[in-house]
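User: Before I run my own analysis I want an independent prediction to cross-check against. Here's the chain; please return only the structure tokens and, at the end, one sentence I can use as a sanity check.
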Amino acid sequence: MQRSKQQALMFLLGATLVGGALGFSADRYLVHERMATQYGRRARFYDELGLTERQRQAVDSLASARECETRLLLAPHDSAVNAIRVRFRRQRDSVFTKEQKAMYDKLWEDVRKRDSTEKAKEPKWTCSAN
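Assistant: Structure tokens:
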């Protein structure tokens, strides 16, 4: 009886370790894919389509114009959108424990640092109307 309990315990321990390793690996893979910058995704997309440099520049110009038009359209609503974000953050933070909030803040700061590094590599879009 004691031996079968030990075997069952060892099986569960092994399954937990294997599951943890697989989960960690999957998370690293998915996060890496998710963290690809917009510019990197666009370049991969262009590569897959086999676009020439001239075509890439044309599509980039169109995307830039679309971004500018979208910003101009949404600009009058910035304060309302920001108020919604602030309310959400306040409500979300009220759900966290102090430890979870501190952990969340650290993770979010790491994301912001990584994003700012990646954005520095991207081409800058400017809207002439802004």
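Sanity check: The two ends are 77 Å apart (CA to CA).
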